[in-house]
Automatic annotation (TrEMBL):
Keyword DNA-binding included in the entry's annotation: yes
Coiled-coil ranges per UniProt: none
Residue ranges annotated for the HTH gntR-type domain, each copy included: 13-81
Keywords linked to the UniProt accession: DNA-binding, Plasmid, Transcription, Transcription regulation
Protein name per the record: FadR/GntR family transcriptional regulator
Alphabetized GO MF terms: DNA binding; DNA-binding transcription factor activity
Organism: Pantoea sp. BJ2
Amino acid sequence: MQIPAELHPISTPRSDTLILDALTRYMAQSGAQPGSRLPPERVLAEKLGVSRNTVREALKRWEALGIILRKKGSGTFLQAEVGVNDSFLSLRFKNDSANMLHALEVRRIIESESCALAAQRASAADLIEIEQRLNEMEKVHLAIGSAGAEDWAFHASIYRAAGNPLLLQMLNGIYDSFHAFFESPPEQALFSDSFPLHRELFNAIRQRDCTASRAICHQILDITERDMKDVMNAKR
């Protein structure tokens, strides 16, 4: 039986990733095929509860990936097949179990070495920024039991401190995919166990201990892998 296609307002417009995920589900549930026309930006903005400019910027990402084609005077047309569980993001991952585990392997390789590089290269200003981000993350987490955006800001500050801008670009795409994958269950259930390790990671970076930084990063990702497998089992 076909599920009625609907668009619902996004309660917290945190990023265009959420808009693209909502559009992906909508197009899949409506049975859209390559060549199908998307609703006008005005309609999408009203349904999602965001501005037209926000929708326009999100659609630019899809256009860059070749997922849609925008024809002046004619509208916007779907160019690729979409499934209800797909997540078309920075690296265009299929949001399924096998690819998420593969993505985690890539994340381990890049992230652990990024932490080691940060321990080696971080400037005094970098360390101040990392600690500020950590303090913000801890404050929000202790207040509401969840700090996804602040957690990412903390990790992003470490990747910047590693001194290689390509690392942050690649990890940003992987982060988007993991964020979509972990939409449910609630974020706090997936984050609490690794919470204390973030302070340990900062301390290792500040002490210029590359080995410890790498090892603590692996511990955090061990918890992520465990939680990911729990989500996969729950979805079966």
